[in-house]
Amino acid sequence: MRFWFTCRAVTLISKLFNFLTEPDHLIYSFSSLTFANDHKLGWDPTIRRVSINSKTQYRITMHTDEGEPLEYQTTRVISDYNADALRSWNPHLRSLSQVSGWKPGEGCRTCCIKGLLERL
């Protein structure tokens, strides 16, 4: 038996092992997945998927140096050329608008984000 892990950046394959004679590897792997919290499994709690007019958008929470939360929402995709491939370094480029934590006179409320936001 082998374990496979694939994400956008890399594919990892474990060494071959016999789960009948070496069950510790299998038990450890399943226990790790079962008891890990969402963050340890790769889930980013600062990004939430929302539906706006039947279109999928993302709400992204960031914090200032003082700890004040700032919330942004994607408004449109600028570029996602080849960004949905299983292994790809091509990022999604999206336009964002600040929806909370903004005060008048603090500059532009619209910005751009380059990131590896995968389809959820």
- Strand count, sense and closure of the main sheet? 5 strands, antiparallel
Instruction: Classify the helix fraction into a percent range.
Output: 10-25%
Low-pLDDT ranges: 116-120
Specify the number of helices.
1
Strand coverage percent:
35-45%
Average pLDDT rating = 75
In whole angstroms, how far apart are the ends?
A: 29 Å
Instruction: Supply Rg.
Output: 20 Å
User: What is the strand tally?
Assistant: 7
Please give the order of strands in the largest beta sheet. Answer: 3-4-5-6-7
Overall SS class: mainly beta
Shape: elongated
Q: In sequence order, what are the helices and strands, one letter per element?
A: EEHEEEEE
Report on the architecture of this protein.
The protein has 120 residues and is mainly beta. The protein is 11% helix and 39% strand. The strands form two sheets. It has a five-stranded antiparallel beta sheet, with no helix packed on it. A two-stranded antiparallel sheet has the order 1-2. A hairpin with a 4-residue loop joins strand 1 and strand 2. It is elongated. The C terminus is likely disordered.
